[in-house]
C-alpha cells in the first residue's frame, strides 16, 4: 500500500479549491473535483487520527 503524503494531499486540495472557484470550470468537472476532495479529506482525517493515537500512546 502506498504511504499517504499529507502535505501532498493538502496541496491537491488547494488546487481543487482554486479550480472549483474558477468560473470557467465546467459543472461536470466540479462534481469530479468535489468527489476527489471528499476522498482526500477522509484520508487526511484518518491520517491525523492515526497520528493522534500514536502520540497518545507515548
Question: How helical, in percent, are the residues?
Answer: over 70%
Counted beta strands:
0
Strand content of the residues, in percent? Answer: under 5%
Ranges where pLDDT stays below 50 over 5 or more residues in a row are none
How far is it from the N-terminal to the C-terminal residue, by CA?
A: 25 Å
Shape: elongated
Number of discrete helical segments: 2
Q: How many independent structural domains?
A: 1
Order of helices and strands: HH
The main β sheet shows up as: none
Instruction: Summarize model confidence as the mean pLDDT.
Output: 94
The rounded Rg comes to 14 Å
Structural class: mainly alpha
Short overview:
Helices cover 79% and strands 0% of the residues. By secondary structure, the protein is mostly helical.
Description:
- This protein is mostly helical and 58 residues long.
- The protein has one domain (6-56).
- The chain is 79% helix and 0% strand.
- The protein has two helices and no strands.
- The chain has helices spanning 6-21, 27-56.
- The radius of gyration is 14 Å and the shape is elongated.
- The two termini are 25 Å apart.
- The mean pLDDT is 94.
SSE diagram, text form:
Elements: H1 6-21, H2 27-56
Helix pairs in contact: 1-2
Amino acid at each position: 500500500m502506498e504511504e499517504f503524503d499529507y502535505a501532498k494531499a493538502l496541496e491537491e486540495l488547494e488546487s481543487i479549491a482554486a479550480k472549483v472557484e474558477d468560473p470557467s470550470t465546467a459543472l461536470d468537472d466540479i462534481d469530479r473535483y468535489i468527489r476527489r476532495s471528499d476522498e482526500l479529506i477522509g484520508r487526511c482525517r484518518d491520517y491525523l487520527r492515526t497520528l493522534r493515537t500514536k502520540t497518545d500512546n507515548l
